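Re: that chain you flagged

S.,

Sorry for the slow reply, it's been a week of failed gels. I finally had a moment to sit down with the sequence you sent. For the record, here it is as I used it:
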Amino acid sequence: MIKKLLTFCYWCGKRAQCNTRYADGKIVREGAQIMLGSNESYVALCRKHYKEGKL
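Prediction finished late last night. Pasting the structure tokens below so you have them in one place:
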């Protein structure tokens, strides 16, 4: 059986669609796709806030 875990946007509380990595207060859009062992460097965002780059 597969269970779907829901995550919510850090800003608005809508369903999050992006697990976003950030560094120095900005979204990281280039470079390595995965950074192992750095759970504190990720935040869940909805599509709107991901596109806006809002952290």
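What I noticed first: The chain has a mean pLDDT of 84.

Talk soon,
D.
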